[in-house]
Amino acid sequence: MAGGALRPWRARVRDRLLDWRERWVGVADPFADWSAAPPDASGRFESFGAWPSRHVTPRRIDVWLPPGYDEPDAVPHAVLYMHDGQHLFDPATAAGGHPWAVGHHVTMQMLAGRMRPTIVVGVWNTPLRYAEYAPAPALLRLPAPLYALTVEAGHPAGGPFESLSEGYLHFLIDELKPVIDARYRTRRGPADTAVMGASMGALASLHALVARPDVFGAAGCLSTHWPLTINPALLGHGGDVRLRDIAAAGLGWLAESLPAAGRHRLYFDHGDRHLDGLYGPFQHRVDELAFARGYRPGVDFRSLLFPRAAHHERAWRSRLGQALSWLLPA
User: Which stretches of the chain drop beneath a pLDDT of 70?
Assistant: First the structure.
């Protein structure tokens, strides 16, 4: 690989050894029973098969209403918009059969008094996921050759890449949110409107808050994919060193555009295994950028490392509860 690897070989060997240990010895998974369970039993669903849009491809939307929402005296609810909606609730559609069990997590946080009453809007992805989630303002800072390399795997048909991230935000804000607010009893201001996702969905969540801080008051970013690319030639075998230059474009965009502290809450986390093992140095720089903008750890900013956590649905599900209660505390 050109330029060597970004991640030390010792860390990659450690991952391989841990993989073998878990394969032969096994690891306790407190959420394993959810993998074979039906969709979240608590609360109520309303699903819309192909939500129309002038900006992006129509896609399914799942709205989860928590227990108590239908009570006559129920208060208006906050709203959490989540990307990759097919992975949130149902083992039949979640990657590897491992849903995030979002309804369970929100219900438990609400019952514990750690989270305000909240509706979850699950926005399904499409084959154009990368084009919709990768923030265009970050990609456009790249020089032409590096841009081409970054987006090389971003079109499912192998054709020319077209960024759709701005259109995706228009869909969320101008087409989806007004209908959600009209149909359901919601608190409509930014203080009660959050957005969350993992990996590229984390970048999409951050982009939403940065672009429209008047709409979104909190962003939850799990395993944020700071390398900005899904090109396997760059990500494989510990990561090509050119990822530093690619990620720098995203960091430059964030340094210029992140809203100043005072009205927003940011949550970041990542593991240290496999793909997540690439994120630590970049996340450290993001933390410093946020502190420079006035964000304070434990007040309106949280950035967590989960040792031995890798890049998959089970890892995100296992730490979802604390992210939810941070974004929309009671």
Answer: 1-4, 9, 15, 18-19, 21-23, 25-41
CATH code, domain with 135: 3.40.50.1820
Q: How far, in Å, CA of 67 to CA of 41, rounded?
A: 10
Q: Hey, how many other C-beta atoms are within 10 angstroms of the C-beta on 217?
A: 21
For residue 210, is it within any domain? yes
What tokens appear for 239 in the block? 């990561």
d(CA 93, CA 39): 10
Where residue 228 falls (left for φ over 0; alpha for ψ -120 to 50; beta otherwise) is left
Nearest to 93 by CA among 57, 153, 40: 40
pTM of the model: 0.93
Helix 320-327 / helix 102-111 crossing angle, nearest 10 deg: 60
Both structure tokens of 106: 């929100």
Task: Say if CB 66 and CB 77 are below 8 A apart.
Answer: yes
- Cβ contacts of 173-176, under 8 Å, gap ≥ 24: 173/208, 173/212, 173/215, 174/55, 175/51, 175/52, 175/53, 175/54, 175/55, 176/51, 176/61, 176/81, 176/121, 176/123
> DSSP class of residue 53?
-
Answer whether residue 316 is part of any domain: yes
Instruction: Name the nearest CA neighbour of 140 among 110, 162, 111.
Output: 162
Q: Which residue matches tokens 């203080």? A: 191
Which bin fits 8, alpha (ψ -120 to 50), beta or left (φ > 0)?
beta
Q: Which residues, including other chains, have CB under 8 Å from residue 55's CB and lie 6 or more apart?
A: 167, 168, 170, 171, 174, 175
pLDDT reported for residue 160: 86
Judge whether 2 lies within some domain: no
Measured CA to CA in angstroms, residue 114 lies from 8, 76, 109, 208, 280 at distances of: 39, 17, 5, 25, 28
Instruction: Using the structure block, give the residue that is written with the tokens 């949130």.
Output: 88
Q: Can you give the residue range of the structural domain that contains 263? A: 9-327
Query: SS3 helix, strand, coil % of the chain, rounded to 5?
Result: 40, 15, 40
